[in-house]
Amino acid sequence: MTIASLRLDAFLPYRLSFTTNLVSDAVASAYEEAFGLRIPEWRVVAVVAEHPDGVTPQAIGLKTRMDKVTVSRAASALVDRGLLQRTPNPADQRSHLLMLSTAGTALYQAIVPQALALEEQIFGSFTQAERAQLVAMLRRIDAIVLAGNMSASNP
What we know:
Blueprint: H1 12-35, H2 39-49, H3 57-64, H4 68-80, E1 84-88, E2 96-100, H5 102-123, H6 128-147
Antiparallel strand pairs: 1-2
Helix pairs in contact: 1-5, 2-4, 3-4
Pfam family, one: MarR_2
Protein name: MarR family transcriptional regulator
GO molecular function: DNA binding; DNA-binding transcription factor activity
């Protein structure tokens, strides 16, 4: 009986993870150095900025795939820094809404041009069609994994 072999560097799940970590590390360094933000904090700011009327921590977790502890810690750090405000959630008294403060809005507006410039540094050598194709493929991967139609014994 022969044992199946696998070259890790050619294994697509590994390649995806490796590249994601490289990009995430580059982004984390840039945001930490320029704005004192860790990646979870930046993600919370970015999602909250998309919802000017407020968004729940639960919705942030769903959108970012961060667990509730990570979202809670990031939100607390941002509230402590005066970048976010918590308000009661009229739709659910057990939760609250997060909104950018004036300082948070100013920070977001300062980050966006740098975020877009960093994106351009990383993906600038790709055509718009290649970028669109990459996004489409990533969304297809998301859909397959979220559908959960996978198992190790039935590839």
